[in-house]
Amino acid sequence: MKQEPESKEVSVAKNATKKNLIYYPLGTVGRDAVFCLINSYLLTFVLFTRPLNGAQVAAITGIMIAARIFDALNDPIMGNIIERTRSRYGKFKPWLLAGGLSTSVVIYLLFNVKLQGWSFVWFFGLMYFAFSITYTMSDISYWGMIPALGSDADARNQFTSRATLFAGIGSTLASILIPLFTTGSGAIGGSTSVAYGWIALVIAILAPLFILFTVCGVREHRESTDRSQKKKVSLTQTFKIILRNDQLVWVAVIFLIQQIGNGLVIGGIGSTYIYFTFGYDGGLYSLFTTVGMSATAFLMIFYPMISRRIHRKKLLGIMSVIAAAGYAMMLAAGVLPAMGDGSFWLLVTGYMLSNFGQYCFYLVMMISIMNTVEYNEYKFGVREEGIITSLRPFITKMGSALIVALTSATYLILGVTDYTNQISALEQECAQGLITEEQKLSQISGVIFGTAEGYAGVGRGKSLGLLIAMTVLPCVLMLVSFFLYRKKYKLDEEEYERICGELKKRE
User: Fold this and answer.
1) Which ranges of 85-116 would DSSP assign to H, the alpha helix?
2) Which residues are CB-contacts of 155 (< 8 A; sequence separation ≥ 6)?
3) Which of 189, 219, 311, 416 is such that its CA lies 20 to 30 A from the CA of 69?
4) Which residues of 317-349 are buried (b: 16+ CB within 10 A; e: fewer)?
5) 352-400 confidence digits (pLDDT tens)
6) pLDDT digits over 1-52, tens only?
């Protein structure tokens, strides 16, 4: 049978999709390096470069929690603004570029200020709230663009997996290089505070350059995103749009629970535990994150193929078992008698398995949120892409606020700041030239292990407390989220295809 030639329109659409699959994911490499710097290392930067009393630590913790809650509440508002934006460049690109440029200014100032004490705390508060606003502009507009690039399940899986692949590249590179060049003997300039200033400058330059790939190279399907335009929606109506979509609400709750557990290791507890247990060496934490995140590259590349063969709920069951086994190995590394280097490698291997399972959960949640766009159109006649997709960063930021609260509470309960204050004081002395880098590292080793006169060292009980906080709690939260997803989320593969078929009939 003779095959019909492709129409010109189909050929153009395929070429546009191929081009989008190249340029869209590139845009997030720098953005996720920024997010990694702030989300994973800001609290570490503060504690290890500024001697702070209990009130100042509490104030900074309160600022971070309040700003992230404000940021999360601002996400639907930003989604609403994007939804109503009209420009020759579309509704996403202007905010993506503006947010990227302004975020770079903020992070440079935040990591290069020389203030101390309460002056630093107030400046930190101003910059952190500014970051909440500027990063939201680019984050909502970037991820909100996916439904405008393809509506069928396979295309959406491809865009999501590629975007998360390149996001993973950006965040993984940052996770590897930041501790390597800021902590221990490899610190740029011999000082952690100086090193963070240079790292922030490099990221601030690279992030907008990567965003230009998306801004200049991506073509949106405007006809699909603009077919149901409406009058301006108020803030109250925005939340009503979210709350009336029962599947969106359930997946948001499930995702929030999972994100809290998933972020505890990289939110600061993981690095602090490694420094207190194995030594003040950024290379150790870089190795931990490198091996731990390496397995996720498999999912980044092959998730579309896997998703076509294994249903999401079954896949999450498999990954939950793998992740739970990983957390058990991490806990065993700290509980079992000392095994020398074997203890560290058991910890690393366990993190690799747990991160593999958690990352698959993240990918499934991304798809699950985006699929509620068609569900919303099916039930209410409107897509509301900008508002619905704003829930992903909303959840991430609410989760990060709770992660900060849990991390800081863990530090205060275990008395971690008693040791970080001593380390930050030595870092400041080294930066001012009062002691050499060799003297600094020797005295910090004394603070941690009690090998020098006048230092008691970090006790085993404190290290074990940190380990429990980054293994047992995340595992429990992950399992709770998995069981809720199985019970409450109804948009499985068959139901989603049925809804998409119904929408095509309506057109």
Assistant:
1) 93-112
2) 17, 149
3) 416
4) eebbeebbebbbbbbebbeeeeeeeebbebbbb
5) 999 999 989 988 888 888 888 888 888 888 887 767 877 777 788 888 8
6) 455 555 555 554 566 667 777 788 888 888 989 988 998 889 889 988 888 8
